[in-house]
Design a protein that fits this description.
By secondary structure, the protein is mainly α. The protein contains 4 helices and no strands. The protein is elongated, with a radius of gyration of 16 Å.
């Protein structure tokens, strides 16, 4: 049973990362059509702020390892989530340093990329 759960977890994490990347690129293209380069870069930066912490979380938590105990899995989850939150805050702080970024496309790209996470999780339930 744990092997099946671990295999599904790895596939689910991989699927979320892949869809976030696709949606981030599509969101940037739509933003470019709607508002030009400045809007596209802002939307892509927002998507990147959601995407990069999820990649870090996946590298920390998402790999299947049959030798891990339940305690190790829970510990990896909490460490991964903590890293994700700190990295998200850091990336937003860095994004706010660039006065050229537009806030509405930035947050729109971030929210759309996070929405992929929840939609991808609901597909497998």
């Amino acid at each position: 049973m744990p092997e099946v759960l671990g295999a599904r977890l790895y596939g689910g994490v991989r699927r979320i990362i892949r869809w976030q990347l696709i949606v981030m690129v599509v969101c940037g293209a739509i933003a470019y059509i709607a508002g030009g380069w400045k809007t596209a870069i802002s939307a892509s930066a927002g998507g990147l702020i959601a995407f990069l912490p999820n990649v870090v979380f996946a590298l920390r938590f998402g790999f299947f390892d049959p030798a891990r105990s339940a305690r190790d899995i829970v510990r990896a989850f909490y460490v991964g989530e903590s890293l994700k939150l700190v990295l998200t805050g850091t990336l937003f702080f860095l994004a706010f340093q660039f006065r050229e970024l537009e806030f509405l496309p930035l947050f729109s790209g971030f929210i759309v990329a996070l929405g992929v996470y929840w939609i991808a999780l609901l597909q497998r339930i």
